[in-house]
Design goal:
The protein is built from three helices and eight strands. By secondary structure, it is an alpha+beta fold. It has an eight-stranded mixed sheet. Keywords: Metal-binding.
Length: 136
Amino acid sequence: MRKIEHIGIAVKSLETSNLLFEKLFGAPAYKQEEVVSEGVKTSFFMNGPNKIELLEATNSESPIAKFLEKKGEGIHHIAFDVKDILSEMKRLQDEGFTLLNEVPKKGADNKLVAFLHPKTTNGVLIELCQEIGEQV
């Protein structure tokens, strides 16, 4: 893992939360997109070198909808930038961590992503991110 890539925050309303974070950071989101396969709309904000991803559910079956129902708005995950997501997934699995997906999938912001089960990471959902097209 090279660095924290972003912190994901589950929100009920992207529109309302975008206004809040624009005020907080003094700048609008630099990117918004929908990841249909995950049932989520996202907004990305930069604050210095730090990136924040806001996540709103687009349907009641999405992981974000289930998170909001159970825990309410707040930090959903911490994402780490990795050079080679496949080797990092294997390394972590060999170390005893449980993966939530067997193969990486396309996520937001031009990334391949995989998640570690929070039961094996002290209750924190960990996301691994590799830039699509980055040479390994």
